[in-house]
Specification:
Keywords: Methyltransferase, Mitochondrion, RNA-binding, rRNA processing, S-adenosyl-L-methionine, Transferase, Transit peptide. This is NOL1/NOP2/Sun domain family member 4. The protein has helices at about 1-5, 20-30, 90-95, 115-120, 135-150, 170, 190-195, 205-225, 245-255, and strands spanning about 15, 35-40, 55-60, 80-85, 105, 125-130, 160, 175-185, 225-235, 260-265, 280, 285-290, 300-310. By secondary structure, it is an alpha/beta fold. It has a single domain (about 1-10, about 85-305), classed as Vaccinia Virus protein VP39 (Rossmann fold, 3-Layer(aba) Sandwich), CATH 3.40.50. The strands form 2 sheets. Strands 5, 6, 7, 8, 9, 10, 11, 12 and 13 form a 9-stranded mixed β-sheet that branches. Strands 2-3-1-4 form a 4-stranded antiparallel β-sheet. The protein binds S-adenosylmethionine.
Amino acid sequence: MIFESLKFPTQHCAVVNKFSVHEEVQEKLSCVAAQHQSVGPFMSTIGGDEQSQPQLSCYFPNSEESVRFPKQEKTSNGFFDYYLLDASSLLPVLALDICPDNTVLDMCAAPGGKSVLISQFLLIRGCLVASEVANQRRANLIKVVKDYIPKISKTKDLVHVRSLTGLKYGEYEPNAYDRVLLDVPCSSERHNLHTNFEFSFWSEKHSTENANMQGKLLMSALQTVVPGGFVIYSTCSMSPIENDGVIDEVLSKCTVKKQLKVEVVASQFENNSLAKMFDYRMTKHGVLVVPSKTKNWGPMYFCKLQRLTI
Ligand SMILES: C[S@@+](CC[C@H](N)C(=O)[O-])C[C@H]1O[C@@H](n2cnc3c(N)ncnc32)[C@H](O)[C@@H]1O
């Protein structure tokens, strides 16, 4: 069933770019069979003031059928109108619970969809570092950032694109970021199915190799986040080895190390009205969005971790 769903093209939603000319976007999307919804961060603080939080302005397909959105274009101020993505990609960013003045690290950032989403929550005192090691992918990321996100002023950027490997942040910049998004390279079953036509690429050995790298990246993320700050670990894989398996491994390493105190915390996803749009399972540590024929979003796994003060 999941395999059948994966063979269909991903459904898309459109996230309106707050830096574009809103009225032009609204007019363009008025003829699309999609409904508008504002979505905010999943709040970790019970009783937090949702009204004062910036929101994402999204268009979701009206029915279970896939909707064809018109191609993205620049509005009259030079910035692109919206970003198209699988709606499950919203969830790790919403779970990060970004405040407008946060310093955020997107540790594996290209092609840049989640960096664009993060930028929508930040105001002038906030800042995003988007890191990507692969040269060509980083070039694409730079283009996306330029197309979607303005500078704060002539001399100040909202987004800084860097080439530093995620593996080094913990060592070079300990206790530096309020929020870290770690959207790791993974087995990515949907992507591989559409490029390789076979499921034969999947092997436990390959998944275990991925998990090894993912665990190292997660340790680095937990060291570079400030005590009290949040890390979201996410994959677009259904492999338990790369999902809860990585979290188990890292939690036991932290217990042994003792210099790093970390806790898995509830993302609050299942209490949010957005949850009914998805087929999902609560796993030992996180949430796994599972593609189905009628809700063909994902796969997407995410887990929220908080670094505690020792
Ligand atoms: C799943 S993709 C990220 C997708 C991105 N977050 C988005 O939403 O557009 C993973 C990315 O991590 C990059 N990557 C792999 N190893 C890395 C490392 N050690 N440090 C930083 N980025 C890395 C890959 O080149 C790839 O572009």
